[in-house]
Task: inverse folding
């Protein structure tokens, strides 16, 4: 599969290309963001790996611009020399699918890239939309609608909504949710997950559609569909208990 690598450090490029040699994921290398953006006007990669620190522009700005051009369907991985919670959350919220800290050994780098491809590129037969009542998510267009009205979600909020709407009435552990949305290799703070869950509840107005996205014992979440209350039992004289006459 055709993929783009944006990296200005020659040693890192050599290590990366050597690690991916023989893989089905083949990378076209760019050392400057401008060259990569020009290539995007005529070619559409199936995956992108972007360095955070570049001489001409911040990698986060490149990520945001790339998402505007290619949309949210292809996986994008950020490479960096520094790892902290703020940077990780910032990159993921901007649309990154994973966040890798250099240096990585060849086998680990290759395994992580190929795992990302397996996880983020849906099979051709996978559903591209999900509908639950009056709520619809269109994965290809990254569009959420409620009663036909568009709802604005960030890329990660959309991914959270996609996971929970595809699994109504099923327990989803935090680990499963994080792996599906942020990636298994990422350390995600509990409050980050909670914030995204809260945003999905609020923006999609789940309670208006008889849906409840509830926390389960602090270990995960479940999207519950409220069932209509049973009709009240009408008591009549015929239904009243009868007294039996035992007199002789």
Result:
């Amino acid at each position: 599969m055709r993929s783009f690598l944006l990296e200005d450090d020659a040693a890192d490029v050599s290590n990366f290309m050597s690690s991916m040699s023989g893989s089905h994921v083949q990378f076209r290398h760019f050392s400057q963001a401008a060259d990569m953006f020009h290539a995007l006007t005529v070619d559409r990669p199936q995956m992108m790996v972007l360095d955070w620190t570049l001489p001409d522009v911040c990698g986060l700005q490149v990520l945001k611009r790339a998402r505007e051009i290619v949309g949210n369907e292809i996986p994008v991985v950020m490479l960096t020399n520094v790892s902290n919670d703020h940077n990780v959350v910032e990159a993921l919220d901007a649309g990154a699918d994973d966040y890798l800290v250099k240096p990585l050994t060849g086998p680990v780098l290759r395994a992580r890239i190929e795992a990302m491809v397996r996880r983020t590129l849906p099979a051709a037969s996978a559903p591209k939309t999900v509908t639950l009542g009056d709520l619809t998510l269109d994965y290809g267009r990254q569009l959420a609608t409620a009663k036909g009205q568009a709802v604005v979600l960030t890329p990660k909020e959309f991914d959270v909504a996609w996971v929970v709407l595809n699994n109504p009435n099923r327990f989803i552990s935090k680990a499963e949710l994080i792996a599906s949305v942020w990636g298994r290799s990422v350390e995600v703070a509990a409050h980050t997950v909670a914030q995204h869950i809260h945003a999905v509840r609020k923006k999609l107005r789940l309670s208006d559609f008889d849906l409840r996205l509830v926390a389960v014992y602090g270990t995960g979440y479940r999207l519950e569909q409220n069932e209509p209350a049973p009709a009240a039992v009408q008591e009549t004289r015929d239904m009243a208990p009868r007294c039996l006459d035992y007199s002789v």
User: Anything to note?
Assistant: The two ends are 94 Å apart (CA to CA). Residues 77 and 98 are 5 Å apart (CA to CA).
